[in-house]
Amino acid sequence: MARSIDIRADLDRPDRTRAAGRRRSVLAEDRWLIIVFLLPTTLFMLLLLWLPFLQGIWISLHNWPLMGEPSWRGLGNYRDFLNASYFWTSIEATLIYSLSTLFQLIVALIAALALKQVFVPAKSLLRGIMLIAYAMPPVVVGAIWLFLLDPNLGMITHHLLEFGIIDYPIYWFADNTWAKWMITLVASWTFWPFMFLIILSSLQAIPQSQYELAEVYGANLWQRFVTVTWPNIQGAILVVVILRLAFNLAKIDQPFQLAGGGPGYETSVLSILMYRFAFMSGDFGMAFTVGMFLVAVTLILLAPFAFLYQRHLRQVGR
Amino acid sequence: MTANGVGLRVNHLRKTFRGGSVVACEDVNLEIAEGELLVMLGPSGCGKTTTLRCIAGLEHPDNDDAIWINGRNMTRVPPKDRNLAFVFQETAMFPNLSVRRNISFGLDIRKQVPRPEIDRRVEEAARMLRIEDLLDRRPYELSGGQGQRVALGRAIVTEPSAFLLDEPLAALDAALRVEMRTEIKLIQRKLNCTMIFVTHDQEEALTIGDKIAVMHKGVVQQVDTPHNVYHRPANLFVGTFIGLPPINRFACELQQNGAGLELRSERFVLPLAGEQAARLEQAPGRRVTLGVRPELMEIGAEGAIPGTVRLVEMMGSRTLVLIEAENQDIRVLVQGEPGLREGERVGLTPDLGRAFYFDERGQNLLA
Amino acid sequence: MTDDRSTPLQKVLTYAALVVILFLVLVPYGYVIVTAFKPPYEVYEVSWWPSEFSLDSWRDVLGIYHFHVYLWNSLLAGLGSAVLAVAIALPGAYIFARKEFPFREPFFYVIVGTLVFPFILLIVPITIVWIRIGLFDSFLGLWLAFQIFAVPYSMWILRGYFARLPRHLEEAAQIYGCTQFQAFWRVMLPMAKPVIVSVLFLAFLQGWSDFLFSNMLTTGDGPRTAAVAIYTSTAGGERVDWGPLMVMTLLAGIPPVVLYMFAQKHLARTFAGAGH
Question: Domain map of chain A by residue range?
């Protein structure tokens, strides 16, 4: 019986046929085992994640300066944020930065499809090379690109000038428009291998017979892609998009290193904005307000993909 | 919906892999008539699947004139232009399409048949295969047998020149396999189509085929009706491969004695008479492998070949008796229950009139 | 075994795509490597080959900037993170994979779902708590902080793998006298080598590459990692010359890549066959 490809763990759930009988009486020995094994993790997550999160909500409803007394503001912080001049700038920067997910997906798809097709020795070496950028710390990659893009001695600037593509060196990260696109491009360059790895695994698991079947029944290259390849990797694509979108929204180290949140607020994506409020202005109330916005934006952007993923699972019978 | 097939010819097909170091098909020649069901039978690695895939266009033969379909050289034509249908061993249903769309796949892709006609063909095929209720289900809901029916349906609706089936029943359980192979044969008869069926199961081949092509090491050993393949094997390989339990083999020498020819081995002497003697007369002193099918041996208190009963296995209406005769195991199939006990000493008498005589190269001397 | 039946057009497109991508990936690194071996003055010129092969930058990195200390710290940070992640996540993953209990699935998703949580929201509370309980500026503090991300991630991967392992070997072990725990220890764990290596690698990477927590939870005197050192050299106010900086990027970037090469086989086996 043919099944679709999906890397999510839950598909390979342990069989549920015995669940109905057992659920009523979890064995005593099992109960003890379960508690012992799960308790540390649960406690850990509770204390370090959920508690601070709730705390954060609380703080966002106050004026909470670093030095000084907190005072209640209710939704005042939220109102101020919505009316601030930097609100839309930040949102715009955040959305543009999220586009790197799309760029990563495109490159990852092309690379995975190409690598799967090619009949070449040392395939795993090639795959390994592609993954270099992801294996390095993001701030290391940031440092490299700062060097390459440096307006004075950067290799890229130099060659762009030489080929007449630009007339004078651009201060990429000080430019109002370029800065946010540059951080997006660097992020794409850094993180695309993650998607590549997972999509490639998914691709390689597609049985050859499905392709041959399509071929015998008249499908050309494009039709084979649409009927065999695409449906089989949809699951993997959705998962990586969800993950990378989430990670991308929370990312702060590399973009901050590259542009410092500036010029002005041009590259202050929500995560950077939060950091600025917390550690540069000492205004924790606003910081957590921005943080809540970040959570909201994350949920909003992720929701359609999560929904699509649920639907995908249902369509292939999970 | 009638699908009258076309004739197919495989002409000195040679197929090697890895630059010639692996020879899958040495020299395959086959002639398949319109409306015929040919079974390609052989052990794994004999080249049957490779031949089928070459016919489909999924592999490129080494020579350019290997595949002829309906009188035209189709060796270099891409698979999608050959108008053939292929059924794989692993049910290849597209997981994201409903059963209905899986069946209509070949027609949807080519966009040549109008929608109402497509729907009609799908309904008709589904009725023929008794899966009308499953049309709107999804692949994951289907069992193995149902899945293979869908695969057949997909093949049927495209009204191909020929059906190619690559061990389609191998993944099914035994009872289902028996049921499906009869169904496939009935469908082939009803549609009067050309069908090539690959299998390694000789029982399946004997039941289903109009003709069987027995293959071994990339070469066709014999193409014949099931009856002939069973009763007149061309060589030792065919004789041994066909028939379960397998044939009993004895290494002998043809000798002249005063009265005529006799078969002499270390353990027994069997005088030859009549037709066999006449036809084998030209070759005294030759080494001959005597092949006797298990059901063509008689067990008695006395007999030409002495032995001891080792095991008695009941097989429904017949009994399989394993007999040890010096350092050889002999299998005899007896009707009913002979009432033998393990350890009993018996004598075996082969039916020389219906036995096979293979020369040193394995060729059937009397074929 | 089957031939390559792709058309020439397919071949051209495929190779072109690969060449372009490889170019985009390798050229930047190529330039970094070249720069690392240039004499100090030449770093400021754009040239693709050093006029003379020089190890000056390397000397500075070790002598002036003491980068080896930071590399060592990164190594420890990564190792601790890896070991801890496996130790915490493994038992939990086993339970989720093999045991039935009420609300198992929702519970699992609550834990794994935290992956989509923006972790920067936590730096402030965690810093405060860490200071209060004395974990500030210590390796243990870092290791524990990394677990917030590493544990859900590891559990997700581990559970998927465990669920895919066939049960019959453990069951056979139990028939032959093993307790559940022994069956886990002696049968399942050895079979789990690929996934454990994968998780160790990914958690190690987490610790080696992390900047956020490493920066917040340490001071310059404490266990500063290479990632933090590089950050402060570019944006954190302690500027460093480009030459030595490129050497630092190589030193901080290459070890995980090398480790990845070793882990590759295991990573492939962990993720392949998932869902099929």
Answer: 14-60, 80-315
